[in-house]
Each structure stands twice: as structure tokens, then as C-alpha cells.
Amino acid sequence: MPSVQTLVQPSPVAPKDHVDHSVDATDAESDASALPSVSDYLEALPAKHLEPLWSRMDAMVPRTPNPVAKPYIWKYKNTLPLLSAAGQLVPEEEAERRVLMLVNPSMSRFNHTTIRVVHFVFLNYDMVCSTTPIFGGMLTRFQYADAPHTTDTIYAGLQLVNPGETAPAHRHTAYACRFIISGEGFTAVEGKRMPLIRGDVVVTPSWHWHDHGNESKNPVIWLDALNLPLFTYARVHFAETYAASRYPST
């Protein structure tokens, strides 16, 4: 009589790294009862340097643009006399760039208590002074909380270079455009020199050495426009001054 063999299927063996994710209903109820209240939960987050996005969604992802800058007009006929006076009052060696910044009044970030200035003053935006004499005047406890800008994304200013002067070479992270308003001069970008004539538009790329000069008999004036606020807000804007006043050019 032939033998009968019984086939027995081995029971499946879970791998060693297997984790049982099944949850018993009673355990789930116990965990839910252990949860804090919503208010206690939210109050505990700041100590962990956490914040719920769902409560700040409108601020983080607004429905519409919300610029700070408001429309404003600077009349050239009113500004030109002040810029011309700066050309006479502020010597070349006292101003790396003789510029009147176009500061939007809706974006003014000045924090000052007392200002008494007899003549024109040109300051770097990150300068902090306390009772400092400047050109016969006195600047007292004057601070910039942040850089003054023209719009939320653009810094602009009117620059004047007198005959025989050089705006020394430097480079910066922000891009720059220059709209030539009057006079004749030149600019050199990474050693390539080009003329500046009324009506020209010159673009200076990021982190390129550049300097400007005036070999004519009359002042040259242009409008600077830089996307500096974008780099300032990101805390990555800075500049480097070249060792000589002119970058070698051809």
C-alpha cells in the first residue's frame, strides 16, 4: 500500500526588522485621552521654537501683493540745485559715490533724535554716529535702522561726477543700471571702458569691478538704479573696494 505524505505549509515568519503597526482600539482611546488641550498644545510650541503654519497662512502666503512703498515723485528741477551744491561742498575724497538717494517717504527707516547739519551730509546706510562734526555741522545720535530705499525692490539715486574726478572701483552683489541724464563721462566694467552720453543706459552685472570718471569740462549726472533691497533683505549684500581708484581698463 503506497504511503501517504501530508504536506504542511510552514507558517510565515516575520522578518527581524518587521514592526507591528496595528493599534488596539483601547490603546487609541487611551492615547487620545492623554493629549493636551488645543490651547495648551499651542502654548507649548514656542518653547520648542515651533509655530503652526495654519494659524499664519495669510501672513506667509498672502492673497494679494502688499508693498510698503507708495507712489512718490521727485522733481528733477527741485533736486538738481541740491545735487549741484553737493558737487561744490563735498570733495571727491570725502564721498566714494556723490549721490543723493531717492528715499521713499513711506519707507523711511530713519531713527533719530536730534539732527543739526549746516551743509550736506552723505552717509553709508549702515553708519551709526553720535555727536560727530561733519562739514561744520553736527550729527547727534543719528542711526539707520535699515537701508533707505526707493521702492520695495529698487534703490535709486542721482549721482554727480565733476570734471577730472573718478568714482573709485568697487564691486557689489547687487545689479546696477545707470541712466545718463546730462554731460559726458565714462564707465569701465571689468576693464572694458565705454563712454557715457546723455540718453545712454548702462548695466553693471553682479560682482563685476567697475569705476566711473569724467574727462570732460562739465559735470556728468546719471540716475543709479540697483536691486539692492532684494539682497539687503536676504542679508547677503556687501561690496568690495579695489586697491586702486581705477581698475585696469583698455
TrEMBL record:
Membrane-spanning ranges: none
One MF annotation (Gene Ontology) recorded for this entry: dioxygenase activity
CDD domains per record: cupin_GDO-like_N
Source domain of life: Eukaryota
UniProt protein name: Gentisate 1,2-dioxygenase
Domain Cupin type-2: 158-224
Entry-linked InterPro entries: Cupin_2, GDO-like, RmlC-like_jellyroll, RmlC_Cupin_sf
Keywords (A to Z) from UniProt: Dioxygenase, Oxidoreductase
